[in-house]
Every structure is written in structure tokens, then in C-alpha cells.
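Example 3.2
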Amino acid sequence: MVSQEIIKKENKDVDNAILKENRKQTILDKLFHIVFLLCACMAVVAVFAITIFIFSKGLQPFIPGNEEGTYSFIKFITGLEWKPSQNIYGIGYMIIASIYATVGAIVIGVPIGILTAVFIAEIASPRIADIVRPMIELLAGIPSVLYGVFGFAVIVPFVRNYISPFQLGDSLLSVILILSIMILPTIISVSETAIRAVPKSYKEGAYGLGATKMEVIFRTILPAAKSGILAGVVLGIGRAIGETMAVILVAGNPESGIPRTIYDQVRLITNNIVLEQGYAEGLHEEMLFSTGVVLFLFIMIINIILNKIRSKVVEK
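Structure, written as C-alpha cells:
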């Protein structure tokens, strides 16, 4: 009897310990759940706060009865001159320049980035890949302003002396070249990861059917990795659209004029905000916030279009 009572007591102690540990674990799980939820909410709140602030400030010039005066939104986004001293605010030529610069960076940077990712993942020996990959990662860590200094000191003189017929280095071409370099790390890293994620059975099956190495890469691996590659392209385009500091030093930033050739000077939407925000006031300051609204909408539209394209490609 005594031994049975001792065993029951020990079992009860064990059960109590287990219950206590389970309660402790449950409390910790709930605590971490709350922490993770708060972190997620912070990101959402930050997006909403930025959006509300930008729109509340940026839409003021177009609301009748504004203290600083009312301006036409259509005239604002289609105007071809930006002269705050004369109360002329038009960013149409900046929007066009931003589109040109982004498209140019895509045309040059995307093929180079994808082919580099293919080289690292499928062609290069492990030793060479281990050398190239850290260089790409280092390229991603370089601050934007250093890209701008490089563009100002190297790319601009090169364009002026060897390419441009107008002896003008700070131009749309210089912007495209510097943006093409800046989007490479993102495209290469994401594309390489997507390529390496393709199952080996795909490649082995293609080789078994008699395909060459290039046929396997372009007809099997890249189509299978297209979703991840497109994700890298979208991220790269996002950086190209939003880049500022590097572009300021190589663009020229004129107060008017649609670029008619790649050798013309340009002013991008992002440049306009940074160049004048420090001293702007009154209607001028509100118009810079309005420029931010247009930039916000511009990026949102581009992302929606690219995601739609990505979804359709993945479905196919």
C-alpha cells in the first residue's frame, strides 16, 4: 500500500510538472504570437501612415480654397516646365524621363543580370562561382551616392568624350547606364536562387532526350525558373524607379524639356523632390509633395502591371 501511494504521488507530481510546463509553453506561444502580430501591424501602419501623410499634403494644391492657391492637376502632370519662381509647376517631362530611364535600364540590365545568374548557377566552376558571387553581393552593398560619384567621375566623362555627339556627358544615357549597374545585384541574386531551385530531374530528363547544355539552359531551366526570375526583375525595376542620389549626379536636371535623344539632360521625378525640398515653402513645398503623390501612384501602377504579367506567365 505504501509503495502504491508513493507511485501515485510521483505520477501526480509528474503530471503537475507537465501541466505547468504546458502552461508555460502556452503563455510563451501567445506572447510570441502577440510580438509577431505587432511587428506585422507596424509594417501595415507605416505604409498607411506614409500614404495618408503624402496624399494629405500632396493633394492640397488641387483643392479649391487652398491658402497657397489652387492649381490644375491635369496641368501639373502634363506640364513641360518646372519654374517655382514663376509659379509654373509641370512634371510631365519628368514622368516621361523616368519612364525612359526605367525602360532603358531594363533593356540593358535585365539580360545581363539573367545571363550572369545562369553563368554562376550552371556554367561556372564552383571555384569561379565562389569568386563572382561575393563580388555581386558587394555590389549590392555599395551606397547609392557612391554609384553617383562613380557615374559622375567615370560614366559622364566617358559619354561626353566617346559617345555623345553634343559633348554633353550628364544625360539620359548616363542615367540608364548607372541604373543598369545598380539593378544587377538584385536581378542576379534572385535569378540565381530561382535557377538553383529547378529540380535536377528536369535537367537529367532533357539531357536524356539528347539536348545540348545550351538547350537545357534556355529551353528547360529558364522556363522552369521564370517565376523567380520575374520576381527579381520586378525588384530590380522597383529600385530603378525609386533611385535618387546616384541619378542626381549624372542627369543634368533641367527645368524643362522632354528628352528627344538619349544624349539630352533629364530630370527624374525623384530628383525633383530631393533637389528642392530643403528650401521650398508655401505652394512650392506643396507641389513637391504632389510630385511624391505622382511618384507613389507611378510605382504602384508599374508594380500592378508587372505582377499581372508575372501571374499570366506563371499560369502558362
